[in-house]
Amino acid sequence: MERNLPMKRVKIFFLCLIFLLTGILAAGSEIAAPEKPLTVAEATEFKATSRYAEVMAFIKELELRSPLIRVESLCVSTEGKDVPLIILGNPVPASPQALRRDKRGVIYIQANIHAGEVEGKEASLMLARDILLEEKPPYLDRLVILMAPIFNADGNEKISPENRPQQPGPEQGVGVRPNGQNLDLNRDSMKLESPEVRGLVRNVLLRWDPLLLVDCHTTDGAYHQEVVTYSWGVNPNGDSAIIAYQRDKMMPETEEILEKKYNTLAVAYGGFVDFRNPEKGWQTLEPQPRYVTNYMGLRNRLSILDENYVHADFKTRVMGNYSFLRAILDYCSAHLEEISGLVSEADRRTVLKGLNPSEKDLFSVEYELKTLKNPVVVHAYEVEIVQRGEGQRPQVRPTDKVKTYTIPYFSDYAGKRGVRFPYAYIINVPDPEIIAKLLQHGLTVDKLEEAVTLEVESFKLKELKTSELPYQGHHLNQVKGEYGLEKKEFPAGTFLVPTGQPLGNLAASLLEPESDDGLVVWNFFDRYVVSQWGRGFQVYPVYKLLQPVILVKEAVR
Ligand SMILES: [Zn+2]
Q1: Which residues, listed in sequence order, are joined to residue 84 by a DSSP beta bridge?
Q2: Taking ligand 1, which is a single-atom ion, which protein residues have CB atoms under 5 Å away?
Q3: What is the residue-wise DSSP string for 292-325?
Q4: Alpha-carbon gap, residue 67 to 132, rounded angstroms
Q5: 39-73 pLDDT, tens per residue?
Q6: Cα 79 to middle of ligand 1, angstroms
Q7: What is the three-class DSSP state of 452?
Q8: Are strands 302-308 and 228-232 parallel, antiparallel or unpaired?
């Protein structure tokens, strides 16, 4: 075997060479390797959605690859997860103060508020990557983009294929709707009981003051062909110029961009007024500001509700959401000055109204839902009614016969009954929880430094209806009563909320007794309005000062 030795050495030499070469090649291919990081949805061919750790790892990867991203904390969730807020900018601002002399506008994209509705989580991560990794990153010369891709992180981690069974994919499942406290985060904007929505107000709205909030969801109802549906803030106590701008200009134009540039069909959000008879019309969401998109209107800021079409497959939903976000950013960067101007005008108007309210300035406590001037076009299907077993409601099913409905769109909540919009609300009980709530929203709250006698409007309760079943942990109240004028002395230390501030409309929505989503509804005043002894009701302890009065007061911190 001696003579084979040199041959063996040659073989070993060649083997080593091959190993070396493979090593070099492998190393080379590692450098050239994945062009861009993939989201879990993309990497699994849309069979799965990302978990919290995967979202965090993806963001970390973006931070390694680009200097144009920074991460802040939006909140710590009930179950202890740090909910990330990512900031994209060129340069990326170190803080909002860095934007003081900057013409860029801040746009905020929020996803996964309902953690069974996960398209926005995947789409926003993809979008952040695609913006950052482009040679000349788009939008960032005009916009600073904030994103909360996993707003409801606790709900997200309860991924199961059994959640939202009506939704075709991702087959490995999605998270659940509520947060770690079992609260619906899209009903929390007025009572602010969750760390997530408190974090949104404190660390996004008050800190960065975005011009626009986009909230990403998935629909639950009607069958149609459009993969994207959308709404704007519809609460009529918000600034009407903002509502009109979004309704008449911004959203129709964004829809057009989406269709022409991204080849994606969209329709205004809604459901058929009557399933069996689609011709009757198409109706938008409820107007209460507990929904975050409606809440933004009370803060004089723009908002878009994105609802992805539930019956489309997961990939189509994610890509629809992705394109919609791009279309929104296209619109915003092209109309930035217009939007900034609209928002500062709305702030100015609100302050002026509060400083000197007239009898014509009303706060709507009852609305009627009217149709818009233009009908909506819904690309839907003819329906069939399937009779089911005895005692069961017949099922309405779409056939595969497509049909275009051009029908009235019920989306205009107009004030039906209004009450006087005051100069200030005087809170005649030193309740720390109520005062803390007002401050959490960012309202200016003052305290009288001297006792004063004032003519004020009072509200005497005549009726209180409390819901029997709890809703979001509350037994909701509805009150009726009588308004009257009286002279009343208020001691030094009494709290008051002037409405001559940019959040004046929000102050009214929280403190008006008949507001359909105010602090009375959410039980903050329960102990004060019901008689403790005997029957009947007390006077609501918040009085309205209708006319401007110079008061000796200091701001509460
Ligand atoms: Zn939702």
Answers
A1: 73
A2: 114, 117, 217
A3: HHHHHHHTT-EEEEEEE-TTS-HHHHHHHHHHHH
A4: 9
A5: 999 999 999 999 999 999 999 999 999 999 999 99
A6: 21
A7: strand
A8: antiparallel
